[in-house]
Amino acid sequence: MDRPIEFFRLDWCGRAVQLEYQWVGRADSQAPLVVFLHEGLGSVSMWKDFPARFCQAAHCRGLVYSRPGYGQSTPRHPDERWGVDFMHRQAFEVLPALLAALKIDPRQQQLWLFGHSDGASISLLYAARYPQALAGAIVLAPHIMVEDITIISIEQARDTYQTTDLPKKLSRYHQDVDSAFWGWNTIWLHPPFRAWSIEEELTTIQCPLLAVQGLDDEYGSLEQIRGLARRVPSTELLELPACGHSPHRDQPTTLITNASDFISRHTLGGEPR
After folding, report:
1. Are 198 and 205 a contacting pair, CB within 8 Å?
2. Taking each helix axis from N to C terminus, what angle separates 50-58 and 252-265, rounded to the nearest 10 degrees?
3. Is 144 left (phi over 0), alpha (psi -120 to 50) or beta?
4. What is the distance between the alpha carbons of residues 186 and 81, in angstroms, rounded to a whole number?
5. Tens digit of each residue's pLDDT (9 = 90 or more) over 97-115
6. List of domains in the chain
7. pLDDT by residue (tens digit) across 113-159?
């Protein structure tokens, strides 16, 4: 049974912020633990029931959280502008602080990351910085560099946000929808961000990776996951037809089947406990 939303306090960027998190799936402390990292406009609630469904199928525990600026976590300060290294800071500062606060020690348990879009890139950066920390990672539509198709779609998202009821729709998932939207949109469209790339950093990853992307992804080409596979030999690819940028929404059954099998094959003892 899923537990209620909880919060923990983090001193970050010179001020105190609260992060919301929720446990889902099995309560067994010996089961593999999957930490879910949301997309650039995501949050705990925006995952809906996918983490619980996945953890039930994969026989895992799950931890879902909202990064600063998203969901019910502390919104961005009105003057706060994220830097080009914003995903690195999430991977090297916020995620380790969350694990430490919840007494999650990767040396003592089988820790997996399950990231989508920006969350997938953050997962890859964590795996690269801490190569011994993870049992594995599942990354949906990761960004390893910036492509023209990505910028065009993010520009279109900006126009949609300014001319339609998109803010009202997103407000169901964020206490401060402008904080969530403009934090993401502004940095991705910041000209210096066009040169952002984590391609060289990926080479230190040692854990198994399942990289998933839809054939109709409007935010990136298949070069994102194929480039990842060239740099990390432990990568398996899953390319999904009839699927856009969000495989967990467009092809949930196929994704759950393949990702839970991937965890099973790479779990100590041969299958999740």
Report:
1. no
2. 40
3. alpha
4. 8
5. 999 999 999 888 899 999 9
6. 6-265 (3.40.50.1820)
7. 999 999 999 999 999 999 999 999 999 999 999 999 999 999 999 99
Side chain identity at residue 225, one-letter code: I
How far is residue 14 from each of residues 18, 80, 90, 233, 272, measured CA to CA in Å?
13, 11, 15, 39, 40
Q: Which two tokens stand for residue 74?
A: 């502390």
C-alpha closest to that of 94 among 69, 72, 71, 114: 69
The answer to whether residues 33 and 112 touch, using CB atoms and an 8 Å cutoff, is yes
Question: Which two structure tokens, joined as six digits, stand for 85?
Answer: 């290294």
DSSP string, 134-161: -SEEEEES--SB--HHHHHHHHHHHHHH
Residue 233's identity, in one-letter code, is P
